[in-house]
Amino acid sequence: MQPKKCDLIIKGSYVLTQNDERELIEDGAIAVSGSLISAVGKRSEIEVEWVAEETVDCGKSVILPGLMNAHTHVPMTLMRGVADDLPLLDWLHNYMFPIESGLTKELVELGARLGCAEMIASGTTAIFDGYMYEDAVGKAVDGSGMKAVLGEGFFKFPSPFFKTAQEAWNAIEALQERFADHDRIRTSVTPHAVFTTDPEQLAESMELAEKLDILWQIHAAESVPETKLTLETFGKRPVQILKDYGLLTKRTRLHHCVDVTDEEIDWIRDAGAMIAHNPQSNLKLGSGICPLTKFLEAGVNAGLGTDGAASNNNLDMFDEMRTAAMLQKGFLQDPEAMPAQTVLDMATVCGASFLGFEDTGSLKAGLKADIVAIDMDKMHSKPVYNPLSHVIYSAGGQDVCLTVCDGQVLYRNGEFLTVDVEIISREAEKAVKWALKRLESR
Ligand SMILES: [Zn+2]
């Protein structure tokens, strides 16, 4: 039998398929044609059945699906390290908002290009973003070859970005129109949080999400002080407001959900809404610990996110996976509370559902070829009993040796193929002066 033609074959010591059986293939290979996976199997079988234009042998390695960052503000890389060791509301109102109110489209694009480069090099292929000037983020994502759900953020009107609600709705519609036919980029309606908007605005914004048939995302119940503020302002807890205004729906994506009651978890589950877990950001801002196991036991789909680089302070999903696993074990004093497999699911298959990209998240024929490999020929990866264990407990983003998104190689052995990291690094250093000036003029 003649072998079939494909564009790319990727080989490695192990393939963590994340398919329905969570199959692990030893000495595995993946055949890729165009943007899709054609076949996944044993190296010996793939080599007989397929002939490729290009073959990438990753050597001693683990191949896994591209990681899905369920919550980030990618341009915030420019604010990495500008204000640390502060509580959420102080950090937000006295540092982030004053800097952000002076943002330009050019700066947002620069921060997004920096963030995309960082994520490509650490194995992330898709992000759920929320920020201002998201068309500039879309431009950066498009150029990088990654995929994204963009979200043009808004606060109470007037804001430095939108004087009226209508202006915000127009911007969201324009963003949706601009990327409507894009293969890798989608959009969402993105109110910042319950305490920085008002319920009527939120209800109106959900109507817009329904009209455009796109996802609706919000920061929700991130910390106890947020709940206190929301209670003082509206007389209700954040998730209660979401429920009362019809904002818990199948298209709802809630970021954080740290300060929630058991009853609120049930409401979220009953509505078919999903949550993004952001353990490092929650820890760094002292926001608390999300009752993640309760959400999962209730049957809520959860993705995993880094949040922005100003509250993390990196966008490394391997780092985030490790923290997610460790945190619940320590918090609940139960080492079985958050197994490695559950954490990898959050960062891959469950993350893909969270982002609404149903054609990715695992390595199966017919799905999008979003594939990463980590180099296992490192001292901290030896010996190998269980590759999954290394992915969660001993690997880091710096071990990534290959990143492929929609069949396109974006990064290979330290080389960036879609972004110019020298220019990005130089320009990012210049942004320091701008940010410090914004803080001086508070
Ligand atoms: Zn956030």
Task: Summarize the structure in words.
The chain is an alpha/beta fold. It folds into two domains: 4-65 and 368-416, Roll (Urease, subunit C, domain 1); 67-355, Metal-dependent hydrolases (TIM Barrel), CATH 3.20.20.140. The protein has helices at 43-49, 88-100, 105-120, 134-144, 165-179, 199-212, 224-234, 238-244, 262-271, 279-284, 292-298, 317-332, 340-347, 349-355, 387-394, 421-440; strands at residues 4-16, 24-33, 36-42, 50-57, 61-65, 67-72, 124-129, 147-154, 185-191, 215-220, 252-256, 274-277, 302-304, 371-375, 400-405, 408-412, 415-416. The relative contact order is 0.17. Zinc ion binds at residues 71, 73, 219, 255, 307-308. Residues 71, 73, 219, 255, 307-308 line the site of zinc ion.
